[in-house]
Each structure stands twice: as C-alpha cells, then as structure tokens.
Design a protein that fits this description.
Elements lengths: L2 E5 L3 E3 L2 H8 L7 E4 L6 E10 L4 E8 L6 E4 L1 H7 L6 E2 L11 E3 L4 E3 L4 E4 L2 E4 L1 H7 L6 E6 L6 E10 L6 E4 L1 H7 L6 E5 L1
Parallel strand pairs: 1-14, 2-5, 6-10, 7-10, 11-13
Antiparallel strand pairs: 1-15, 2-6, 3-4, 4-5, 4-8, 8-9, 11-14, 12-13, 12-15
C-alpha cells in the first residue's frame, strides 16, 4: 500500500491579528489554490522573511491559525541566518527562534515561530487502521525515484478525521530523494 508524497515548500501560517498588520485592517486571505488537506489553501498573499543574512519571500497558507508559524527547510534557515531552528511538528513553536515579517502594510518582529517541519504522514482513522498504525507512531517510509531511492526514518503518523492521506516532506528532503512530480511512498519495516 502506498500514498502520495508531497513537497511542502517554505511557507507561513498567520493569525488574524497578523494578517491585519501585514495586509491591512479587515483583510482576509485570498484562496489561490486548494491544497491536498481538506480546508487548507495556498493564498495569493506573500510575506517577506527578513533574517540576519538575507530575505525570502514565502507563500501564506490559509485559513488563519491561532499562532503564527513559519515552516522552513534547513537550507532556508541558513539563507536567512537563523540558528538552532528545531525540527518540530506543526503547532509546536515554544522556544523556537523568531524572525521579522514584512507585508505590504506593516511589519512584525516574531519572538518565536520558526520551525523545520517534522516529516509526517496525514491519515484518516480508516487509513491508519489499513496501515496498522496509530496517531503519533514513528515509521520509516521508502520512496522510489530515478537514481535516488531513499528510506526516510523518523516519520510521524498524524491521524485525524479532517486529514487526507499524504506524506509531507520539505524541499531539502525532496531534493535528496529526487521526489519530483508525482511521487509515492510506502511504510517499510
């Protein structure tokens, strides 16, 4: 049994308060494209991240969240000059580095919020039962690709009725596995 493996490039999730600071009072996010996870979407809006060594423009993902969170790859963190950016599950931002955000209408100096997202598989409870796993299990996933087949260890299983079956890796991981275009993974022993 396999599942699609998607590359999750650098992006940001914003609170409603931060959306208004960066894009103007009363602004709401503009859906550019629905993503594979139900209710999630890429936005027309973009934010510039400003670090000690450089800047990066990132896509905003919607809908608004309770905490602002920046998801980067290690390469992105180095480009920005960020140090000690931890690998974390989405939402676990306590004690993480912050960064300056610049939008067309304002700026924010985040105190925390930068993470490198832990590679993970989204599953429904039915998917988890079919794969014989449960929420928060750690598995290995094999990816077959032209000349760069790879087994990823330390992949967290995330189970919710609100998910659609898909694995997410960052751009560094996708490059290492040559996981370009449509790519599939399989849980391995």
């Amino acid at each position: 049994m396999n599942f699609i493996v998607e590359t999750s490039a650098r992006h940001i999730h914003l609170t409603n308060e931060h959306i208004e600071v960066l894009f103007g009072k009363g602004h709401t996010l503009t859906n550019k494209k629905d993503l594979s996870q139900p209710g999630q979407f890429a936005c027309e809006e973009k934010v510039t991240l400003v670090g000690e060594k450089g800047t990066l423009k990132v896509s905003v993902l919607g809908p608004a969240r309770k905490d602002t969170q920046v998801e980067l790859s290690y390469t992105d963190a180095r480009t920005l000059g960020l140090k000690n950016v931890p690998v974390r599950e989405s939402g676990d931002i306590a004690g993480t580095p912050g960064i300056k955000l610049v939008g067309p209408c304002g700026e924010i100096e985040l105190e925390t919020g930068c993470i490198i997202a832990k590679r993970h598989i989204h599953m429904t409870p039915e998917d988890a039962a079919n794969f014989g796993v449960k929420d928060k299990d750690i598995v290995k996933v094999g990816i077959k690709s032209e000349g760069r087949a790879l087994i990823f260890d330390d992949v967290v299983v995330r189970v919710s009725e609100n998910y659609a079956l898909a694995m997410h890796i960052d751009t560094d991981e996708a490059n290492a596995a040559a996981a370009f275009g449509t790519c599939y993974g399989t849980i391995v022993d």
